[in-house]
Amino acid sequence: MANALVSIQIIPKTPNGEDVIPFVDAAIEVIEAAGVKYQVNPLETTMEGELSALLVIIEKMNQRMLDMGCTSNISQIKIYTRADNQASMEKLTEKYH
């Protein structure tokens, strides 16, 4: 099990005022390449894993936006941790399924 869930909504300022969706898709590709468990939701993406590793992924996501020409990014982040290493998306939401 993981010790953390991290949800991120990345809001890039695109170079020429383009639609942000292709940029957000590129940010999600960074998560996918990292190999962590994740779930894309309408307004944010949630990752599951070790907190330090997830924060590195967020740093890479922001760097990817800059590499794509974005002049700035806003990353809204929520973090859920458990001392017993039992943080999971399934456990946290099981009563809703």
From TrEMBL:
SUPFAM superfamilies, alphabetized: MTH1187/YkoF-like
Transmembrane segments: none
Xref: InterPro entries: MTH1187/YkoF-like (IPR029756), Thiamine_BP (IPR002767), UPF0045_domain (IPR051614)
An example Gene Ontology CC term for this record: cytosol
Domain Thiamine-binding protein: 6-96
Family to which the UniProt record says this protein belongs: Belongs to the UPF0045 family.
PANTHER family in UniProt: UPF0045 PROTEIN ECM15
Protein name listed in UniProt: Thiamine-binding protein domain-containing protein
